[in-house]
Every structure is written in C-alpha cells, then in structure tokens.
TrEMBL record:
Pfam families given in the database record: AP_endonuc_2
Domain Xylose isomerase-like TIM barrel: 32-266
Name the record gives this protein: Sugar phosphate isomerase/epimerase
GO molecular function annotation: isomerase activity
InterPro entries linked: Sugar_Epim/Isomerase, Xyl_isomerase-like_sf, Xyl_isomerase-like_TIM-brl
Amino acid sequence: MSIKLALAVAPENALMSAFVVFRDKLENSMMKAAMLGYDGVELALLNKKQVDLPKVKKIMKETGLEIPMVSTGQIFADTGVNFTHQDKNKREKALTDFFGLMEVAAELGSLINIGRLRGVLTEGEPSIDYFRESMEKALKRSDELGVTIALEPVNRYEINFLNNCYQTAEIIRSLNHPRLKMMPDVFHMNIEDPSIEGCFWKYADLVSYVHFADSNRWAPGRGHLDFQSIISALKASGYNGYISLEILPFPEPDQAALEAINTIRKFI
C-alpha cells in the first residue's frame, strides 16, 4: 500500500480549536474532499451523536473515501474532561465519551487518537497514575472493539506531558499493548523534536498515522517546513499509512484544502 492523503474535517458547530479546513455537515465535507482528490477524511468529533453512520457509509461507498481516523481533541476543548483530571467523575466522563467515539471508529474501520484528551499533569496529584488507569481501560475497550489507539505527542504550549516523540514512545512501550501506536504531528514535532526526519526513522515501528501542517498551521507550502525531506524520510522508513492534513482554513477553506493536496501529492 502506498501513502494516502486525508483531510481533517469537523461538524458545522465545532469550536475553532478544531484545526480543520471544513466545518460543515460531514457529508458535504466528504464530498468536497473526494472532489479534490483526497483518499480519506479524518473526523474531528465531540461525541458519537454527531455522526449519521448510514449516511457516512453511503458516501464512503459512492466516493471510495475512507475514514482512517476519528480524532478526539474536541472532547477536551469543549467539555474540559480528560484522562488526568483531579475529579474522578470527569475522568470517567472522558472515558465514556471516548468509548462512544471508539464505537464510531469500529463501525467505520478507523483508528482513534488521544491527543489533548489525556489532559495535563497537576502538581501534588498522582496525575500520571490517573492517565495510566484511563489508558488501561481504553486499551481493554480497544480489544473488545478491534480499534487501534494512536497516542499523539502535543507541544508544551497546549499540554504539559508527552510533548515529543521520545516521551510518547517511552510510555507506549511501557504500556506494552499491540493496539497502542504513535501519531506524530509535524506541527508539534517542529516545536519539540530535534529532528522530524530522525523521529520517523527511530520510531518507525510505532508510527501508525501522521498529521501534516506547515510551521504556522497553514497548508504545506505556506510556512518553512521541508516537506520533500520529511516525506522522503517517511517513505524510507517504510511508512505506508495515511498522512492527514490538519490545517487552518486560511486564506480560505477551499483554497487551503487544494493547496495542501497539490503540495504533498508531488512528493509522494
């Protein structure tokens, strides 16, 4: 299988903290992505009620689009619940919402990510233990549903732990579960990792999905990242999964989505 391209989209009422090009009815965004030539669409969701599964499956069948990823950052951004919250009820609510999106992922044959949903470490609290407990429950459910979880390193300005690929790889290996992988994002890597290309080489066995955006979160080509070098390293490491464009809708949504695919296609 060769590398494929996806576009991250969200429902029309999603917060601006969902870094997506299209905020619209999911079926509209899917049709746009298909017309632009994307292979798949990543769904950035708050809860499972936002997805009309029969309608999404119908469009998948009509267009050939895949749904490679369900992303979960909106749970954290919209509700504040997370896996390390001091309040046990809020940790449990985070898991309940996450399990709902895992069911969506299972129906669509998707992976599911954990980025900001893991929360932050709080001084004086056993937050890392809360995180591990939540992850163990999530991984148990992943076995039941057959869904792989992709843990995303997120930069220090958004959350305060598992900021780089090294830290994330260490905890993935300590949890030691076949359905737990890594989801690097070159926007975060540009801030936190000494070498984007080096990380793809070093952690090739863990990388299951990749987010692309330029250094300013605009479409590739609008910042300073060297995507030819990055993609060459990805390909040389043996990666053959999805690259998903998680970008801001600037200068305007359709143009951003088109520029993104045109820039990346020429390198893959």
